[in-house]
Every structure is written in structure tokens, then in C-alpha cells.
Amino acid sequence: MNINLPNFNVKNLVKEAGSTISRVVQLTEEKLGTTERTEYDLHFQNLAERADVTKTWTEKLVRDTESVLIPNPQNRVEDFIFEKIEKSKPKRLSNLEHLALDMIEAGGDFGQDLPYGQALIKAGQAEQKLGQCEHDFIATSGICFTQPLRKFLDGEMKTIGKERGILESKRLDLDACKNRVKKARSMLGQQSAERDLRVAQAEFDRQSEITKLLLDGISTSQASHLRHLHAFIQTQVRYYKQCGDVMEQLQRELAKMQHPKPRLRINSEDVDCGPPSSVSLHSCDSDSVVGPALDSEAADPAHDLSLENLLEDFHIEFDTSAVSTVIFVAECSPVNEDYMYGKQGLMKGLVPRAFVEMLDEEHDVTL
């Protein structure tokens, strides 16, 4: 049985292992301060520091923006995986769209001919529009803001990081050559070490210039990021305006719908008229002759403000067998400018002031 084993170059393995060990020793000596270390110039240090700050904050901005656009972390992970395998992202309903479907279904079950059911359906349709606006906002924000920033991180910043790593390797080689020159004992060894030092210095200088050019390019990248930020803000403004328009339209539609008339019939504990001792209710003379209720001569019979129609409109349950009815009234506490609290026998409720006529100062009125 023939087995093909990979060809290992033992010399190369030993050489790489020795180089790794030498680097570890060199870095340890630099940490301890027992060996010489080539320092970067001040301009390069400022550029490198600005690059680190730019990378850190750009990563945070991308994460925070994606959290705002897609709050669910599981959905963000799924989108990231589909993006990496170059497949279309799955279409999923947003929370607004789930709410819209439930509202529409509930409105149908409650009854489309009832005010509440109609209102739920209209609200659900508006929520569907908001959900579509949200999808458009997320897609546009990704195109104009998060994707360019992520491309910057995956492209320029990775290139800068790679070149800085190469420069650091060149610096270590240069420092190693300087140490060999110091430790050279023979003339031949001195010459060889100095030759290696000149080569290492030239490579270090060349790599340093390349890295500086890349670091200087961050200023141009930030100008581009500023344009992307403006585009993102414009997208937000457009999104919130669309949402406001949808909700204002919904508000107008709901206002046009006929709502059930409010029922003003209440129990005695529903109206705070103060303690019984603070309210004076006086009986009236049953033989008193009273006039008709105020404003009872409405021109339109369908809207006749007679006692029967008045009480029917306001759901006040009083006996209307007589043409003119005398009831007892008291001021509500706090005083209501439009209504008084009325009572006739066991029946009680709110009475509009505009449709009563006071018989005397003791609050006996005619309806």
C-alpha cells in the first residue's frame, strides 16, 4: 500500500522555528528595555493613532446603526451569514406588519360593519404601510451608510493593518541587524553585519513611506464618510415624514367615521355631587303650571328638541309621559357648564342646561 506523505523540508522548518524564537526573545527584551528599539517618527505615530481611533469608532457606528435598523440580533446574524455566502437575505415580517395582520384579522372578527372593527381594519392597513416604509428605510440606509462603512473596514483598514504589520516586521529586522553590528567581533563579520543593516534600513524606510501614504488616505475616507452620513440623515428624514403622513391620513379617516353616541346615563356614584347634606333638592307643587322646555320649536321634525328626542339623544332615562316634566336638579361638583345632575323618582342622569327652564331659585326645572 503506497501512501503519499507531504515533503517536509527539515532545514526550512528549523529555520522558521529559530526565527520565531529569535523574534520572541527580541520582543521580550524590548519589553524589558534591555535592547535597542527603533522608534517611529512623531508624524507617523499621530497618523497611526488617528487610524486606530477611526477603526474603533467606525466599527461601533456600524454595529449601533445595524442594531437600530434590525433590533433582533438573531436576524442580524442570519443576514451576515447570507451576505458572506452571497445569497439573498430571507424576507421576514417586521413587528409592525405582524401587528397590522392581527389588527385586520381582529377587525374582521369583531365585525366590519361595527365602528371598532372598521377602525381596527383601517389601523391595520396603516400599520402595513408603516411596515413597508420601514423595509425601504432599512434597505436604503444599508446602501447609503452601513455598507460603505463596512466596505471601508474590510478594505482600506485591513490593508493598512497588513502594511503596518509588515512595517513592524521590518523594524524588528532592522533592530536585529543593529544588534549584530554591535556584537560583531571580526572585521569580516563587521562588514557583513553592516551590509545587512543597510539593506534592512532601506527596506524599513520604503515600507514606512508606503504605510504613511495609506494612513494619510484616511482623511479622504472620512470626507467620503461625511457624504454617506448626510445621505443617511436624509433617508431618516424621508422615512419619518412618510410615517407621519400615513398616521395623519389614518387620523383623518378615523375622524370621519361615525362613532356611537356617548351614553350619559349614570348611577348616583358616577357623578360627584358632594355629600347629600350639601345638595338641596326641593319638591315642587304638582299643580304648578309650567311652560314648555327651551328650544323645543326646532324646524326640522327629525331633529325636534322635544323632551322625548332630547332624552333619546342623550340616553337620559326620565319619564316623558307628560308634555312638561318637572324634575329635581343639583349642581355637579365640580360645576359643569353644560350639564346638571337631574333626578325624577328612581331615575337619574345628566341634563343639558340648554333644554331646561328654572321654575324658581330652588332648582326645580321644567323639561
TrEMBL record:
> CDD domains of this UniProt entry?
BAR_Endophilin_B
Q: Which residues form the BAR domain?
A: 29-263
Listed name of the protein? Endophilin-B1 isoform X3
GO CC annotations, alphabetized:
cytoplasm
Organism of this sequence: Drosophila kikkawai (Fruit fly)
Gene3D superfamilies registered for this protein in UniProt: Arfaptin homology (AH) domain/BAR domain (1.20.1270.60)
* Superkingdom, natural source: Eukaryota
